[in-house]
């Protein structure tokens, strides 16, 4: 297990904190294009698996049967912020299935979107399961369970046929048998598999270009590309790096976060998959690291970088509204990076 | 700059995230007792300086003039959570000075204490300066400024005589000239000095046993020990490691957090100072690391460790209330640690 210095947090130009990580870029054949740190280290991909877990929803025919639209399919792949638009869509989707919030296995929480959480509290309301960042994924599972006439109870447990089917698909994409690796429980109650970081990049590259997978699986993945590209705000939310990157690149980079410092990106046109882990689990460092890698790969145009500047090197403001520092790729990392722009 | 692996975050027994850090234990003569990582690395001590910044409040005579009690002096050293008790005491103290919240230079924020923040929002209120974790420190500065008849405007700026006096005292304790080191701006608007980590430990050790400082300075420090020991809830708040550690050890360990992964502890009876920095700035790792060092030093009794168990290796619950992991000292760190208890 070894990491490289990826991201520095500065205060008035002096480095205050440092984030270390490992990352790997793979092509859809599984070959490593670039690597930093120990890419064999075991990681929990967490929510970075969501787009891969949504494949079955389409491939099974459930999505067609219930006429899921782009927004719903994007939401099935999402870690959404719990904005009103996300809450509403989960609620209406559940309603169309004849189900309610009570069927969701995830716990009741406040929205991650601060303004939405504050509005709820000011209105005298509390958190609920719809607000959970995983509620779209759970609604996707319920949709498939209904269609396949599987039990709706305990659909989140490892023993449930739906989770076994999901593990099979993940194992296919990652090209390993996930049952042979340690398994945890995720924040929303679903199984949380582990895999070497390199396998997450390989799975992401196959999601980017599924040409070597079965036809049905490949078609399901293309349908998800279309959904996410057309409804980027449903995969995360307003102001997030993931939604803005997807939107700005018009689907040429499909990024997905996972808890504890995980971030993946699928580049369909180039058939590449990127997976990175910030060792300490930091959310603030992973976006900066991914955008630096994308820039290093030449995957972002100047115009795209201009639009994404707030995520490329975010500024830090203090309580008085003064800019007191920034978060940036470490100077020692990625030689050849266009530092004049990034730093 | 080098760090050691201090803390692991696990999920179902498998390590998910890792926090690296540097730490040093010094005696009040300045000699190093124990060390991990690069202890010469430059750090921003941030709020770990607050007890040292409160020395002037007592030493100048301002504290006596305004009859500050233990709770107020503890609050002057605090990063409080903005609970009702903290808000009330800042407000009444300012009122006694003939001042208002408007005199505080820190920005308006919601309390860090989640329940207090939610109560405020539910009551239709917003954040204010009283809630800022630094409002006690700022009220302390205003008290000294009033007593010394210094301008109340811009008391937070580096050029103000109060900040220059504070830097002199910090330089005396840290045994370096802080004006020679980079300076940033803190979250609350005050100057944020830098120093090598070892100097923060030395300053903390001199705060633990000030016998080599001037009599007036030493007496002021003993007064602060008394205040913090008698009012531990005013230096942080309910449920915090800092308040509980101070309370459980009855003042034999006086800990203080700083933003971006900083934590110090003064051990008055042993004349020791500990300073640690988690490289990534994590708050969750610093408490676990400090308690591991204290255990390693034999500074905690079995009874004290029992009472502090929730901070020694905190469990992680998911949204369904299930324990899914824990935060613990890394297995490779601190050989000889009583792991059966800690792990």
TrEMBL record, chains A, B:
From what superkingdom does this record's organism come? Bacteria
Protein source organism: Thiogranum longum
UniProt protein name: Asparaginase
What PANTHER family does the record tag this protein with? Answer: L-ASPARAGINASE, PUTATIVE (AFU_ORTHOLOGUE AFUA_3G11890)-RELATED
